[in-house]
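for the writeup, i need someone to sanity check this before i put it in the appendix. the sequnce is what the collaborator sent (i think, or maybe the updated version? ugh). structure was predicted straight from it, no edits. if anything looks off just tell me and ill rerun, i have time this weekend
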Amino acid sequence: MSLGPVTRAEGPVRVLIVDDTEAVADTVAALDDCDNLDVAAVADPTAALEAHAESPFDCIVTEFEFDGTAGLDTLLSVRESPNPPPVILFTRLDSEDVVSEAFAAGVTDVVDKRSTDAQFAVLAHRISKASVAARQSTELDELHEWVRVIADQSLVGLYVIRDGRVEFVNEYLSNLLGYDTDEVVDRPITDFIVEEDRAIVDESLRDRSHGSVESMSYTVRIRDNAGDLTTLEITGQRTTVDGEPVVVGTAMDVTARLESERLLRRSERLTRQIISSLPDMVFISEPTEFDVIYINDQFEDAWGRDVSLLYEDPFSFLDLIHVDDRDQLRRAIDEMFADIRDGVADEQYEFEFRFLPEGSDTIRWANARAVPLLDEHGDVTNIIGVVSDLTERISHERELAQQNARLDAFARVLSHDIRGPLAVAQGRLELARELDDDSHLDHVERAHRRIADVVEDVLSLARDERSVFDASEISLADSAATGWEMCSSNVDHVRCEIGELPVVEADESRATRLFENLFRNALQHARGGRTDATGDDSDLVIRVGALPSHRGFFVEDNGPGIPPSIRDRVFDSGFSTKDGDGTGLGLGIVRQIADSHGWAIRAVDGATGARFEVLFDPVGEAGEMA
C-alpha cells in the first residue's frame, strides 16, 4: 500500500495510536507501511500516559471518545510534560462541534477517520509534519534558553531597539541602568540618556531611506535609577527581524577606563612639564636599540642643536663629542643595548665624556646616566637617560682638590718623588767606588739636580702657586725619556716605547715627574707573573703616544689592567692596591701635576692593560675636534 510522500523528520518518528475500536488494526497496519514511522497502539488514555512516561513518543493519534474510560481531556494532560508531543485527533467528523471542541481542548490537528488509503496518507503526512514542527519548536526553545543564559552571563550589555524603543536588554545592561529588565523593555532608549547626548542616539537610530549606516559606534552618558552618571561605549548593527528594521548591539561601561585615560593624559602632561623644567637633558629610547622617542628642550639649550635632528638620527650627536671620547662612548652605548638584548642588563649605566656645543669653541664635560625601565615581568620596556653638564662642577672640584691636597701631601710627595733619583745617585756612587770610575759621578750629579728640582716643584705646589712659572715650549718625548731614565735602573724584561708626542707649553721638570710616576706605577703594578707561550717571563711593554686629536697623550702597558670598579679611585691620595707595599701617592701626584697645567687625567679601558690619558683641553679651548 503506497500512501504517497511524507514530510520526514530527522530520525524515525515514534507514533502511539490510542483507540479501543476494531479499526485500530487497520490504522496501525497502514502507518507501519510508511517510511520513518514507528507505530504502537494502546486502548485508552490512561495506558497512553503510562506508555509515554515510560518511553516518550514523538506523536500521539487518538480517538475522541472511549467506552467506560477516561476521555480526551485525560490524554491531553500529556502536554504538561517536558517537550510534549503533538496530539492528533483521528475520528469520524460527524459534527463541527467535535472539531471545535478538540481544538479548544488543545489538540494539534484533526483528521477525518475513514478507512481509505487517501485518509491514511493524510494522517501519515499530518503526523510527520506535526512531529517535525514539535522537534523544531523544542530545538528553538532550547536555543532561546541558551541565548538567554549567554545574554544574562555576558560581561557586556546586549540590546535590541525597534522604532527607538527597547525591545530587549540583558541583565548586565539593565543593572547598569538600575532597573529590572521588564522596567526597561518597551521604553524609549532616550529615556535613559542624558539630555546633552540624546542627539547622538537619535542621529544613530534614525531610519534613512538611502545612505543608511549599517553599523555604528559612539559614546554616551546615561543616568541610572539612582541618578548616577555612567559612560557607555555603544556599538550597533542594523538588521531586519520579521521584516521590520531593528538595531542590535552591545554597551560597555567605560567610565573607569575613560577616567584612567584622563588621569594618564594628565600624568603625561605633568611628567612632560616636570622633565621640561629640569636643568638636565632627559631622553627616552626604545629598549633594544638607540632610537629616541622623547627628548626635552635642554638638548637644544646645552648642545645648540634642534631636537628634531636627534629624532631623525639618534647618533648624530656623536660629531659633537670630543674625538678622544667618541669611540668609547659609542662602544658603551652599543654594549648597553647588547646587554639588554641578552637579558643581562645592569640597573644603571654611566658614561662621562666631553663635548663641544654647536657653534661654540669651549669644551664641556658631561655625565650620562641610563636606566632600563622594567615592566611587571622584568622585561625592559624603555631606556630613560639623564645627561648632566659637569663643566662647572669639575672646574670647582679641581680647584678645591688642588687647595686641599697641597699642604696635606707635601711631606709624603717630597719623600716619594726623591726616592727614584736618590736610588740612581746611590747606585752610581757605589759603582764609582767599586770600579774607581769617575764617569758615574756625572749620573750622581744629575740625580742630585733632579732631587733639587723635585723639592722646588713640591714647594711651589704646596704654596698654591697655580701658574707654571717655568713654562716654556718643551718636547714631551724628551720629558718621557728623562722620566724613564730615572725609573729604569736595575729592571729586566721591561721596555718603554715612546712614540711621537706633541710640543707643548709646560714646566719641563713637572712634566718629567708626571712621566716618572706613571712609569713607576706600571713597574710596580704590571711587572711580575707575566709569561709567554713557552712559560718564560715575558717583557712588560710600556707605550707612550699621542691621542688622535694630538690634544693629549697616553701611557699604557700590557699588564693586568685596572678593574672598572676602582678606576675613579686610583688618583686618590693614599689609595693603593698593593696591600701595604704601596704608598698610594704616585697617581695622586700625577693628577696634581696635570691640574697645575690645566690638564686632566683619566684611567680608561686599555687594549690589553692599564691606560692613562692626559687631556690638554678638558674645559676651555677646543682645539681640533675631528
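The chain has four domains: 13-149, 155-258, 279-390, 467-625. The domain at 155-258 is CATH 3.30.450.20 (Beta-Lactamase).
thx in advance!!
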